[in-house]
Amino acid sequence: MCLGIPGRVVRMLEGYGNQLALVDVVGEERRVNIGMLDDDVHLGPGDWIVIHMGFAMEKVDEAGAEKAMAGLELMGRARTADAGQK
């Protein structure tokens, strides 16, 4: 597994060569390019991916997504956007 941010696919987006997905990342929806995934990887709503620099790097299961988030938390990255803000 690479170091990245886990996100859950909300839906696939039309256009762009079918290489964009709308992904929920800790409660925020983001457009993610899935073009770097292997051709045999199929994504749909509810699937988890690990994202790096706006690109899906790998498809993971929920346990893998939790592991990626735990790694970010070890480095001091808060789970929610407003956590740790005063």
From TrEMBL:
The source organism is Rhodococcus tibetensis
Lineage top rank: taxon? Bacteria
Q: To which protein family does this belong? A: Belongs to the HupF/HypC family.
Protein name according to UniProt: HypC/HybG/HupF family hydrogenase formation chaperone
Matching entries from InterPro entries are given as:
Hydgase_assmbl_chp_CS (IPR019812), Hydrogenase_HupF/HypC (IPR001109)
